[in-house]
Write the structure tokens for this entry.
Amino acid sequence: MKSLTKDIRKLSKEEIAADFALQNIPKYRAKQVFDWLWNKSAGSFEEMTNLSKDFRQWMNENYSIRLLSENVVQQSNDGTIKIGFQCVDNRMIEGVMIPAADRMTACVSSQVGCSLSCKFCATGMLKRERNLDAGEIYDQVVFLNKQSIKQFGKSLSNIVYMGMGEPLLNYDNVMKSIDYITSPEGLGMSARRITVSTSGVSRGIRRMADEGKKFKLALSLHAADDVKRELIMDINKSNPLDEVMDALLYFYNKTGNKITFEYILFDQFNDSDEDASNLIKLCKRVPAFVNIIEYNQVDGVVYTKAKEDRLNYFKNTLEKAGVDVQVRRSRGKDIDAACGQLANKNK
Ligand code: SAH
Ligand code: SF4
């Protein structure tokens, strides 16, 4: 039965070679198959045309390739594309492609739902159902890249792990997916164009540093003191700011990569002079850029976005203190594709 065959994309090249060796299939076949899977993104064994027909049939009887399928594709009036993907177990996830003049960015999900329940995030209102495997994350990139080429004639230039889920609570699969996306045997994209965003899992941050990861790291900060941060992000209880900052500094010292602090500016919650001054202190402690993020209103959330004049004032305050700061305007709001809005509404 096809459903009982082995998911070949869960195997490393060495594991495929070991399987093949049991059937006296030469090692170079494993290399060819691996190349079809991860470099050419083959969706079936039939496509693997440099393999004999008999061998392809044997593969088909013994293995399967469990791709995501595109379920709904929506385009925002600002060009942003959101794809609802169906997993083989029928669970749904979402990925987004954001076009800009200088870059084409894919925003990918790492889990079905999220266990962390941040108070401002639509994904956090779904329960975490399971982790995505490396192939399911890789497929989002492949599909979003196809859309990017189809609609804009350009390939993806950047990938951000800012879709549904907390990437560092699915550490192994996320790292494996980045390998497949960046290695020359895979899609060969530059690791420096990948950003992993975390709500602050200190252990995962330290592990990335120890493993010498070369991609960029963003912290969803959103409040610069423990009391306020705990009100909106439960994870701050187990991973308080002191610990997270130490872990980030450790990452910076090991990799030389500055951190990006994501800071949603909420009206009368984290937009005061004192908040700015706390944020400036954190930027003196850890070399960082600040992205001020426009809040996308989520149904049932008490927080609202900061007033425009307050946003400008807050930004200027940071700039005057020498902080490298940018404002990130929301994209794809009309199709619920903006940050924090991914919640499978079209399910
Ligand atoms: N779980 C990871 C990555 C996914 S969230 C993390 O939290 O970092 C991606 C980004 O969107 C995070 O910075 C998150 O804080 C932000 N976000 C969540 N809800 C939002 C909302 N309603 N408006 C704007 N940004 C939001
Ligand atoms: Fe999960 Fe990130 Fe949303 Fe928090 S902001 S609930 S960590 S996806």
Observations:
- The longest helix spans residues 134-152.
